[in-house]
């Protein structure tokens, strides 16, 4: 699996807290992270964040204008959830929009590491995972989505994306299946 990296996207305190600790998601995701590390695959963490006073946020951006108005995605909300925190030396990319590529140096990091295949996980399926998948496909990356490594507030939206939309541009498998292939 040379040339493959696991992206762990938007698993930060300001987002994870919306789902409650009982979801079982973080320990499950941790299995994928541990497996990638054991296979010597890069694990790259992506988070959304802004500077103080939100100079990156346009009033025309409906989603992020609301964040800027009420405050969020600064300070503690930027921190990756401790249950899946990066190890020393692992890359953390800060993005300024929904896609992991937009407003970040992710593409430069991936190209410098000769990564041509991405394994996507994150919160939310209908947000960062969808946007990153679409942009990664346009950038000619090979893509795998770990269906149970993604989480969304709307279970039906998650189901439609992983069963009907994502397979058009990515391989969609479970964490267990991916680990077996490593």
TrEMBL record:
UniProt keyword terms in alphabetical order: Hydrolase
GO molecular function terms noted in the UniProt entry: hydrolase activity
Keyword Hydrolase: yes
Keyword Hydrolase: yes
Superkingdom of the source species: Bacteria
Domain Isochorismatase-like as annotated: residue spans: 4-176
InterPro entries (UniProt xref): Isochorismatase-like_dom (IPR000868), Isochorismatase-like_hydrls (IPR050272), Isochorismatase-like_sf (IPR036380)
Pfam families attached to this UniProt entry: Isochorismatase (PF00857)
Protein name as catalogued: Cysteine hydrolase family protein
Organism: Amycolatopsis pigmentata
Lineage, highest ranks first: Bacteria, Bacillati, Actinomycetota, Actinomycetes, Pseudonocardiales
């Amino acid at each position: 699996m040379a040339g493959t990296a696991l992206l762990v996207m938007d698993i930060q305190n300001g987002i994870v807290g919306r789902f409650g600790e009982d979801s079982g998601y973080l320990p499950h995701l941790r299995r994928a992270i541990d497996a990638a590390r054991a296979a010597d695959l890069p694990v790259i963490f992506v988070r959304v964040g802004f500077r103080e006073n939100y100079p990156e946020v346009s009033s025309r951006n409906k989603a992020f204008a609301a964040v800027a108005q009420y405050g969020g995605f600064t300070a503690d909300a930027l921190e990756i959830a401790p249950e899946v925190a990066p190890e020393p030396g692992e890359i953390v990319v800060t993005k300024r929009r929904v896609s992991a590529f937009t407003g970040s140096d992710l593409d430069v990091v991936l190209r410098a590491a000769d990564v041509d295949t991405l394994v996507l996980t994150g919160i939310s399926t209908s947000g960062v995972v969808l946007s990153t998948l679409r942009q990664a496909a346009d950038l000619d990356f090979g893509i795998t989505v770990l269906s149970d490594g993604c989480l969304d507030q709307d279970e039906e939206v998650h189901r439609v994306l992983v069963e009907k939309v994502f397979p058009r541009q990515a391989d969609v498998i479970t964490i267990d299946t991916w680990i077996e292939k490593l």
